[in-house]
Amino acid sequence: MIAAVFILVGLMTVYGAAMIVLKGPSVTVSNLLTSTMMETRTLKSVARLFFSEEEMETIMNRNSVSDTDEITDSETDFVIDESKKDKIEIIDIKGPTYEGKLMIVYDPSRIHLAVNSDLGNANEGYFVEEYVKANDAIGGINAGGFDDPNGQGTGGIPYGIVIQDGELVSGGLDDYNSVIGFNEQNKLIVGNMTGRQALEYGLRDAVTFKPIFIVNYVPVEVTGTGGGVNPRTVIGQREDGAVLLLVIDGRQTTSLGASYSDCIDIMTQYGAMNAANLDGGSSSVMVYDGKIINNVVSMNGDRKVPTAFIVK
């Protein structure tokens, strides 16, 4: 009986503290924590204990990334530095609330999309390490989103369209999504388009996720706390063709995570002319030379996913 009372008091204390923070005088802190929670698998329901659906929508709308109608200019060319063509560079990334890894792949032709062999079925996806190993690759990151009901998805059913080797392997020709992928000239193409348009753009490998961060050197506008601070996976490309693969750790004492603005700043700092957000959270993982080199969120490791950008 006494133990039950202590538990009840503890829960009431936690609830009261959360109420003070989430609905207290600091709108900025409330927005940051709420938008952060709404991007997690498990904490969405907690946020809904304190806010109505209408309040949640208002908070998310004032802490967001503006959509863009722009699509990467596929006509511009880049010249690869032949002396660096075989180079892959791993850089430690640090900021006020985050730590992570940036992989720079100087030859964009080495980037390919690995997909679940049972893509679209209810079967499980694979870990990024498995995609890398199965394709004799040197590295990789998680790519597009997937169906994730109640945070229990198994990576078997991808979100939106998926293109591999120039073929639409998931999604419909008329499905309109935020598309991220490479064309036959190994240029990163980002923008909102249908599956049909993606094929007309000559995309060889592509996935669906959002938001787009940078199009033709122009960053999108971020309002408020822009998605909160969370684990992130981002892909970008410089004007010399080098591909930027970024994974930010999050929800840890050493790294809370990065906001959308943080990701845009990092991509801009390293010269990205185009960049986009990939699936993040518990899915965020970077593999290099046979092992995971970032600190994934879960004690159980990273999640199974339907797609991965790999480095051959």
From TrEMBL:
InterPro entries: NAGPA (IPR018711). GO terms for molecular function: hydrolase activity, acting on glycosyl bonds. Keywords: Glycosidase, Hydrolase. Residues 136-311 form the Phosphodiester glycosidase domain. This is Phosphodiester glycosidase family protein. It comes from Holdemania massiliensis.
